[in-house]
Each structure stands twice: as structure tokens, then as C-alpha cells.
Amino acid sequence: MAHSRWKTVRERKLAEGFTESPEVAEARYEIRLSMALAQAVYARRTELGLTQSELAERAGLTQAKISRIEGSDTVPTLPLLAKLARALDATLDIALDEQSTRVAFTAHHGEAA
Questions:
Q1: Domain ranges, residue 42
Q2: What's CA 63's distance to the chain center, in Å?
Q3: What is the count of structural domains for the chain?
Q4: What is the pLDDT along the chain (113 residues), one digit of tens a residue?
Q5: CA 1, CA 44: separation in Å to the nearest integer?
């Protein structure tokens, strides 16, 4: 099977000169942001050995809210992000530009699990 057959439909269309509408590009960017946050929350939570319920309790949230955040199903507010950072005993670092997104929780010194 030729490698070109493995390409996604989007990759094939882009190679043929197709351009996405601004709405689709914006939606793709928002999804990328949400997924980056979800991955960062999950990684830090599991690094601390916490369940979603334990993190929710520490943050003053519900387990369902943590699940929605980790599932990229919600866009958290700044106050909620601050609660998460405190509950994860970390600093939330977010770097955004047109080409890349980086979201990470940097542990404070003296881990508190």
C-alpha cells in the first residue's frame, strides 16, 4: 500500500491546495488548546497519584468537572485554572502562539501529595 493512502483526508486536501475556512481553523485551534490543558491536568494528577475525586476535593470542584476538563469537554475560567494549580501544588504555565500551544504544570518545591 502506498504511503499516500495512509494520509488523512485533511492532509491530502491541504497538499492539493485546499484551505480551511477561518471558522474551521479557529475550531481546530480551540480544540488543540483544550486538549493541551486536558493532557497537562491528567499528567500532573497522575504524577501526584491522585484520583479525579481526590483532585476535585482538593480543588473544591466535583469529580464530573475534573472529568470534563480532562476530556476536553469544557473551557475553564481563570479562577478555575487557579484552583487547579493550587490543588495540583504547581504553577500553571501556558504558552500560546499561532503554530504551537504548550500547557504545563510545574511542581512547586517540596511535593505535597
A1: 9-107
A2: 17
A3: 1
A4: 455 566 677 677 777 877 778 898 888 888 888 999 999 999 999 999 999 999 999 999 999 999 999 999 988 999 999 999 999 999 999 998 877 889 999 999 765 44
A5: 40
